[in-house]
TrEMBL record:
Name of protein: 1,3-beta-glucan synthase
MF terms (GO), sorted A to Z: 1,3-beta-D-glucan synthase activity
GO cellular component: 1,3-beta-D-glucan synthase complex; plasma membrane
Keyword Membrane (UniProt): yes
């Protein structure tokens, strides 16, 4: 691009013969880079040369010789394409003789050079052929492939299908086209003309020494101008990737129907179709059931349409209610909200309608009553409302049906039944004819509703002494209907039935005490209670009494998010659910106040309440055990008969001790699901009486199917005569064994398996070793690994069998998945603003980031849990974790590397999510980011990245690079760009070139002051404390300073040299600034003389000598010869003042010179400190290490003053404290949390602490 911009500036200039000939020189650059690659391969593989076979060594040598040959051939042939070459081409031609020009020779060399690349491009277009060649063991093919790949199983046949290849190729073609276009027109082309102008007019006036004094083209200026642009050119691809991945990820997410249901309003609008989607996604269909002759004879006859709808409604009700009750158990909703969200557990066959959750129907009935009462015999508004809001119609129909059902259930007398029947017949006729509001008096309908609500409240109490009130309410309701709502001609024979004969004849004749009052002896009360009856009464009471809108139910934001995501996921593409008996079995492995204390039960509840709100093992175990509960329900729905299904899962669960069906459901759940918690230290904790062991045992008691794996360390007699005992290690698996059923606290653990190990299993990184020792105790075909900072949700556990079906699908048309990626929700985002930032950062990566990595880029690896592994695949290919020290610091991603290199396939699925906690404090976030960065640095040294880089095609390699080590390399280039730009500007300004160019040519925290004082006191104590053995870095500056230098002790000679070279950059400031002093201009005529710079070093060494003299004097004279020491300090002070006065009076030193000297000498002192730290052993030998430490302490004190001064100033203003607190806890403020009370604590507690 520089060539094109230099020779015209438009892309069409490439068709010019001269420009095209210059562009062809890029193949020479490619040959040089190829030679560098061959050299690096030999350098990095040098230590392994002894274990290499002769064929591998020969391959390395031949590659080096071939690359070196092309570096010679291409420049030579290129030189003979020019008639009058310049530069290097002219030199080459002069060496070899000025022969005839032969451009075709260079073209031929290029064709031969590119022949292997052309063949690779052809194979790139046909990935199935490339997979065949790489995976083949035919000797002829292996001989042909010897040059391109080693004889290893790893990295063979890992290419994707043709469609996947097309997708990620187009992604990078579009990205690179956009990047090159913008770079050409914005970065490169605008600099070409200024560069030509700068090189055309050389500048000879320098205010200090020029790096290139004999240059004719201002080469220093050109370098300062182009260096930042070149770095930006290599860095901005990462920016373009971020933009393209965001765009593609958003489009792909919309295509996958993500975010269609984000709010409760959206949920209500789609809830009517939710039961259908529920049954389609989570309920096995007939097509998934077993086939064959046995299935034909054992299959039940197909139910009618109504019966099928009833079964679907019943299944939806069971699962929906299980989700809502889990919300209540997690304290996300209260009892009232739970009642509004639940649907009846069992189907009421007498109603013959689908009963929606009350939160959809809330306030509909009171509104309908008011509209009917004010209608004036016109039903237009009510009819319009019923048509626009379907739930309005559902609420009216259900209330009327439930009203009829309850009245008919309570009334026993035949006479009363006849009266009620006739009344309902009249009402039904008006409803059928559409004349209900027009012909009946609706003004008294609210009065009837009030009477019925009173009746429902008495039915909820169900006390025998309320029978009289129930009878009166029946009579009052009858009177309202017959006297106020209906007219006499509409009643017909109803009034006669009421009085036992002719209404007119007996009116006023029969004495009152002789008349039989209706309902006096015909009411069934109290009612025999059942779950179905209780639910019906409670539900109808809610529908009639809840007047405010339930738009905010549930009020908890987390409950809203979960229920919305779950509903949205049902409309996304996912595999059909198999029956539990046919699903893939899987395992989950986890890597591991005073009044209340008087009551153990309350204390236990308090501990659980706190544990469920932190990142604890208890929270994780509860979430993962939802799998078993979900499988029990799903097995029940698979095997339940119609009667059991209509009765409901809860009724069967309550009778689980006597229910064979529930016994079978639990057995199947145990067969399909295992949960193993890997606790390395459990054995040690148990023997030492650690409370943690008791808590783990309590968890095993609470969840009997939970298993705990740990490493048991015991002492046994040694077989070695020199040792009496030796430590023996076992990998053990235990479960809870309740010795006393009525006393779960007396539970003990029972060892299931115990495997003797050859030694201590924890040799590498703790987390992966913890996984590796416990994986043998898992079973099933799939394995989900979980961290202790994660949780799960009941509604998501219901989709697990759908997710496992992904293992049976070829997602790229080539291979089955080996790792199923699942999205995460970061639940710690509301703690503080920092936690919110970390949550958003993590959420963007685990959603849109991993979505693009999986499809279309096909480079998603394993970035942490809760991914699900093909257990058998990974057990036979090295396991799920690599645990080598340091190199596998980020152990998660190596599982993805391992899977991809061994022909695995990693996918990502967003219809299921798992909760995860993240760091919430600044220090925690910083340490986490440092761990990720360090782990990425170690990945660059791993053989996995080396093999992926060699075996991926070009575009997939770009995807791998920019999503792993490339991100951090680009970040490093960004930092370099800033340094290069600033040092370039420094070079231009200090040398005077910037001025010459401009004139010669026309180029266009906390918070309170008391807290600041306390922090200053603590910092002063920390900076003053002496270090030493056993002193923590948090207690002493010296200990912290020594710890910061630990990497230098292990860096070797090359590291020491690099540190010294990097420290030299701080001397540039002194070199530039001393030539701008006024005193320099007055002392010497030649202001550019090197003597000026040398004299500045003399001044620095004098200052350091004075400091050393004072330090030695303090140590030797301050105790016994205090007067002498004071005299020495006085003489030094007087001498210093005298020198300053002389410099001001004679050479004319100004105040500005003083500040310039400080700015010049401060970086120099810091550079000397860095050099001294790099060569610490030598400095210690000559006895200057104490002075270096004192100098470093002085710099730290100066920085402390610079930091504390503005903070202390701002602390005087109260609004700064309020603003800081508001910003830090913004999420909590938006939820109404009173932060000041939390930060301040209880007054009594603070007073007690102050006394202590």
């Amino acid at each position: 691009m520089i060539i094109i911009a230099w020779n015209g500036g438009t892309p069409s200039d490439i068709f010019d013969a001269g420009v095209f000939k210059q562009v062809l020189s890029i193949f020479i650059t490619a040959a040089i880079l190829k030679l560098g690659q061959a050299l690096l391969d030999i350098v990095f593989g040098w230590k392994a040369r002894k274990s290499m076979s002769f064929a591998v060594k020969l391959r390395y040598v031949l590659k080096l010789v071939s690359a070196a040959a092309w570096v010679v051939i291409l420049p030579v042939t290129y030189a003979y394409t020019w008639e009058n070459p310049t530069g290097l081409a002219r030199t080459i031609k002069s060496w070899l003789g000025d022969g005839q020009n032969q451009p075709s020779l260079y073209i031929l060399a290029i064709v031969i050079y590119l022949a292997p690349n052309i063949l690779a491009s052809m194979l790139f277009l046909f990935p199935f052929l490339r997979r065949f060649l790489e995976s083949s063991n035919v000797k002829v093919i292996t001989f042909m492939m010897w040059w391109s790949q080693p004889r290893l199983f790893v990295g063979r046949g890992m290419h994707e299908g043709a469609f996947s290849l097309f997708k990620y190729t187009m992604f990078w073609v579009l990205l690179l086209a956009m990047k090159l276009t913008v770079s050409f027109y914005i970065e490169i082309k605008p600099l070409v003309q200024p560069t030509k102008d700068i090189m055309r007019v050389p500048i000879r006036t320098f205010q200090w020494h020029e790096f290139f004094p004999h240059g004719t083209n201002n080469i220093g200026v050109v370098i300062a101008l182009w260096a930042p642009i070149i770095l930006v050119y290599f860095m901005d691809t990462q920016i373009w990737y971020a933009l393209f991945s965001t765009l593609i990820g958003g489009i792909y997410g919309a295509y996958r129907r993500l975010g269609e249901i984000r709010t409760l309003g959206m949920l209500r609008s789609r809830f009517e179709s939710l039961p259908v989607a529920f049954n389609e996604r989570l309920i096995p269909s007939d097509t998934n059931r077993s086939k064959g002759l046995r299935a034909v004879f054992s299959r039940k006859p197909k139910a009618s349409g109504d019966e099928q709808e009833d079964e679907k409604a019943a299944r939806f009700a069971q699962m929906w209610n299980l989700i809502i009750t889990s919300f209540r158990e997690e304290d996300l909703i209260d009892n009232r909200e739970m009642d509004l969200l639940l649907v009846p557990y069992c189907k009421d066959r007498e109603l013959n309608i689908f009963q929606w959750p009350p939160f959809l129907l809330a306030s509909k009935i009171p509104i309908a009553l008011d509209m009917a009462a004010d209608s004036g015999g016109k039903d237009r508004d009510l009819t319009k409302r019923m048509r626009s809001d379907p739930y309005f119609s559902y609420a009216i129909r259900e209330c009327y049906a439930s009203f009829k059902n309850i009245i008919n259930t309570l009334v026993l007398g035949q006479r009363e039944k006849d009266v009620i029947k006739e009344i309902f017949d009249v009402v039904d006729k008006h409803i059928a004819d559409g004349t209900f509001i027009r012909d009946l008096n609706m003004r008294s309908l609210p009065a009837l509703s009030k009477k019925f609500v009173d009746l429902l409240e008495l039915l909820q109490k169900n006390k025998e002494e309320d029978l009289g009130q129930v009878v009166i309410l029946f009579q009052d309701m009858l009177e309202v209907v017959t006297r106020d709502i209906m007219e006499e001609e509409q009643l017909g024979g109803v009034l006669e039935s009421i009085h036992g004969g002719s209404y007119r004849r007996h009116e006023g004749i029969t004495p009152l005490d002789q008349q039989d009052q209706l309902f006096a002896k015909a009411i069934k009360f109290p009612v025999e209670e059942s779950n179905a009856w209780t639910e019906k009464i409670k539900r109808l009471h809610l529908l009639l009494t809840v007047k405010e809108s339930a738009m905010d139910v549930p009020t908890n934001l987390d409950a809203r998010r979960r229920i919305s995501f779950f509903a949205n996921s049902l409309f996304m593409e996912m595999p059909n659910a198999p029956r539990v008996r046919n699903m893939l079995p899987f395992s989950v492995e986890r890597k591991t106040e005073e009044e209340l204390r008087e009551d153990e039960e309350l204390e236990e509840e308090l501990r659980l309440w706190a544990s469920y709100r932190g990142q604890t093992l208890t929270r994780t175990v509860r979430g993962m055990m939802y799998y078993r509960k979900a499988l029990e329900l799903q097995a029940f729905l698979d095997m339940a008969k119609d009667d059991d299904l209509m009765e409901g899962y809860r009724a069967t669960e309550l009778m689980s001790a006597d229910s064979k069906l529930m016994t079978r459901c639990k057995a199947i759940a145990d067969l399909k699901f295992t949960y193993v918690v890997s606790c390395q230290q459990y054995g040690i904790q148990k023997r030492s009486g650690d409370p943690c062991a008791h808590d783990i045992l309590r968890l095993m008691t609470t969840y009997p199917s939970l298993r705990v794996a740990y490493i048991d360390e015991v002492e046994a007699p040694s077989q070695d005569r020199n040792k009496k005992v030796e430590k023996v290690y076992y990998s053990a698996l235990v479960k809870a064994s309740v010795t006393k059923p009525n006393e779960p606290g007396q539970s003990l653990d029972q060892v299931i398996y115990k495997i003797k190990l050859p030694g201590n299993a924890i040799l590498g990184e703790g987390k992966p070793e913890n996984q590796n020792h416990a994986i043998i105790f898992t079973r099933g075909e799939c394995l989900q690994t979980i961290d202790m900072n994660q949780e799960h949700y009941m509604e998501e556990a219901l989709k697990m069998r759908n997710l496992l079906e992904e293992f049976r699908k070829k997602h790229d048309g080539v291979r089955y998945p080996s790792i199923l990626g699942v999205r995460e929700h970061i639940f710690t985002g509301s703690v503080s603003s920092l936690a919110w930032f970390m949550s958003n950062q993590e959420t963007s990566f685990v959603t849109i980031g991993q979505r693009v990595l999986a499809n279309p880029l096909r480079v998603r690896f394993h970035y942490g849990h809760p991914d699900i592994f093909d257990r058998l695949f990974h057990l036979t290919r090295g396991g799920v974790s690599k645990a080598s020290k340091i190199i596998n610091l980020s152990e998660d991603i190596f599982a993805g590397f391992n899977s991809t290199l061994r022909e695995g396939n990693v996918t990502h699925h967003e219809y299921m999510q798992v909760g995860k906690g993240r760091d919430v404090g600044l220090n925690q976030i910083s340490l986490f980011e440092a761990k990720i960065a360090n782990g990425n640095g170690e990945q660059t040294l791993s053989r996995d990245i080396y093999r992926l880089g060699h075996r991926f095609d070009f575009f997939r390699m770009l995807s791998c690079y920019y999503t792993t080590i490339g991100f951090y390399f680009s970040t490093m280039i960004t930092v370099w760009t800033v340094y290069v730009f600033l040092y370039g500007r420094l070079y231009l300004v200090l040398s005077g070139l910037d001025e010459a160019l401009a004139t010669g040519r026309k180029f266009v925290h906390n918070s309170s002051l008391q807290k600041i004082v306390d922090d200053w006191t603590d910092w002063n104590k920390w900076i003053s404390n002496r270090g030493g053995i056993g002193v923590a870095p948090e207690k002493s500056w010296e200990s912290w300073w020594d710890k910061e230098q630990e990497p230098l002790r292990h860096s070797g000679k090359r590291g020491t040299i690099v540190e010294i070279l990097l420290a030299l950059r701080f001397f540039i400031y002194q070199y530039g600034l001393v030539y701008h002093l006024n005193i320099t201009k007055n002392i010497t005529k030649d202001t550019r003389s090197v003597l000026v710079y040398c004299f500045s070093w003399v001044v620095i060494f004098v200052i350091l000598l004075v400091m050393k003299t004072v330090s030695v004097g303090r140590r030797k004279f301050s105790a016994e010869f205090q007067l002498v020491f004071r005299l020495i300090k006085g003489l030094i002070f007087i001498t210093f003042i005298s020198i300053v006065v002389i410099l001001i009076a004679i050479p004319g030193m100004t105040v500005l010179d003083t500040f310039v000297c400080i700015l010049a000498f401060m970086p120099t002192g810091w550079g000397l400190l860095l050099i001294a730290q790099a060569i610490r052993p030598a400095v210690q030998k000559i006895g200057l290490w104490g002075s270096i430490k004192a100098l470093a302490r002085g710099y730290e004190i100066l920085m402390g003053l610079l930091l504390f001064t503005p903070i202390a100033f701002l602390a005087w203003f109260p609004f700064v404290s309020e603003f800081q607190t508001r910003m830090l806890f913004n999420q909590a403020f938006s939820r109404g949390l009173q932060i000041s009370r939390i930060l301040g604590g209880h007054k009594k507690d603070r007073a007690t602490r102050n006394k202590e």
